[in-house]
Amino acid sequence: xxxxxxxSPASSRSTPQKTPADASETVPRSDWSxxxxxxxxxxxxxxxxxxxxxxxxQNFAPDVIETAxxxxxxxxxxxxxxxxxxxxxxxxxGVKATKLMEVERVVAEAARAKAGGATRFCMGAAWRSPKxxxxxxxxxxxxxxxxxxLETCVTLGMLTPAQVERLGDAGLDYYNHNIxxxxxxxxxxxxxxxxxxxxxxxxxxxxxxxxxCAGGIVGMGETVEDRIAMLVILSGLDPHPESVPLNMxxxxxxxxxxDKAEPADAIAFxxxxxxxxILMPKSVVRLSAGRDGMSDETQALxxxxxxxxxxxxxxxxxxxxxxRDRDGKxxxxxxxxxAALRPQLPQESCGCH
Length: 353
Description:
Elements (H helix, E strand, L loop, with lengths): L33 H8 L3 H15 L4 E11 L28 H13 L4 E6 L6 H15 L4 E5 L5 H9 L4 E3 L9 H4 L5 H13 L3 E3 L2 E3 L5 H12 L7 E6 L17 H14 L4 E4 L8 H10 L3 E3 L3 E2 L2 E2 L3 H11 L2 E2 L15
Parallel strand pairs: 1-2, 1-9, 1-12, 2-3, 3-4, 4-5, 6-7, 7-8, 8-9
Antiparallel strand pairs: 10-11
Helix pairs in contact: 1-8, 2-9, 3-4, 8-9, 9-10
């Protein structure tokens, strides 16, 4: 990693009466309404960014970006029919199903990620839910990665409380399980599981003492209202997810979403980042998939709006990502620095009960 990597905005709707300095916008709330969120989203762009940056500065260092690396530890062959996903067995996308990787190889990849500047290592498996025998292997991966001093995150599909407990015992820090979109749009992209299935897994994870990483995807043909509703659902979790990834859908040939996809323009995406920051003031907001298609200027506006995490590395599961040199140059140009590795105590973030 390079040295540096050491609609019209105004609307007729009434605008919120609170000022950026109002403490109610910096203390986490779990009762945001969609109308309140829409009013914030529709603020004049300078006002929206000012409010978001004001909230951000009260909770985070404005010049620090968290870096994470994502590895597909089991690719393709997923029985779910998520209409946006290259790894679904329902669609011909050119992605071949693979077996679960060996523990030693995963730990070696994590060591390379750490050498490249990552502080969190995320592992994704294309499953509806893990089998117990596979979970044991994943737990060994978690223990190995955590032994390197990295934070750990996995995304494995739906979980039972007993599986959450096993992951916690292995020392898992974060579990990723995105809700993807709004309740209204959800049936348009997935039929093999429901929004409530996803929320149930998030509840199991939270009750098991593991931190949540939960966000969504934009650009699949949903409306602005759908995007806002998605953030309202996430902000309704109490407490909020510690990490909120926002993904711009990458066009994947062979998936049904490609026929309805309509990418969010840059300003609309920045507005969504700002809204996420205001609704969930203490959550880390991550620019995730789709960043390779964003200009430096768009990413700079996202950071100004409150995004404070990125994935580093050339690939995110099966899609592209900016290389570390490009990221290093951008962060250097913006005067930003990456977060340092956080010391971990033996029982910290281990989901102990």
